[in-house]
């Protein structure tokens, strides 16, 4: 990180549905505009990390989630992202705020995004290390 730049703390969510599909959003803004990623965003001043996760997922996906355990922390440039495993408690999926799209992806669909370079850098390795890749049905 260049000298004089401060860390920007962010919160995100790792959400799977009952079928094992993973929730992703297509970023509408930089960094990584147009790429698929976990939903999340910047922590507001004085906000608790789990409150930020719930707020960001509601804003970007329309879903109300319950953040549980910390999946892990990723640093991308000046962004320090705290991702939490979450469960959906209410809402209907829709893209909002700075997300261009929001969808559930099974393993085959996720692998296609990965092959095509449509995921944010490092997402697959990170999810693999957290045992959080989609487990939804694979087509034969």
Automatic annotation (TrEMBL):
Keyword DNA damage carried by entry: no
Record carries keyword Glycoprotein: no
Alphabetical list of Pfam families matching this protein: NUDIX
Keywords: Hydrolase
Family: Belongs to the Nudix hydrolase family.
Cofactor(s) the record lists: Mg(2+)
All residue ranges annotated as the Nudix hydrolase domain in the record: 6-127
Organism: Haloechinothrix salitolerans
Gene Ontology molecular function, alphabetical: hydrolase activity
Name of the molecule in the record: NUDIX hydrolase
SUPFAM superfamilies, sorted: Nudix
Listed CDD domains: NUDIX_ADPRase
Alphabetical list of PROSITE patterns matching this protein: NUDIX (PS51462), NUDIX_BOX (PS00893)
């Amino acid at each position: 990180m260049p000298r004089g730049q401060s860390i920007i703390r962010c919160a995100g969510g790792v959400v799977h549905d009952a079928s094992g599909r993973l929730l992703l959003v297509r970023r509408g803004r930089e960094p990584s505009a147009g790429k698929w990623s976990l939903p999340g965003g910047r922590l507001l001043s004085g906000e608790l990390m789990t409150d930020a996760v719930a707020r960001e997922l509601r804003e970007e996906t329309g879903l109300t989630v319950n953040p549980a355990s910390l999946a892990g922390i990723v640093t991308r440039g000046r962004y320090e992202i705290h991702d939490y495993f979450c469960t959906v408690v209410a809402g209907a999926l829709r893209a909002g705020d700075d997300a261009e799209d929001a969808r559930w992806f099974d393993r085959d669909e996720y692998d296609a995004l990965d092959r095509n370079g449509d995921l944010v850098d490092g997402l697959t390795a990170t999810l693999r290390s957290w045992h959080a890749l989609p487990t939804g049905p694979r087509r034969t």
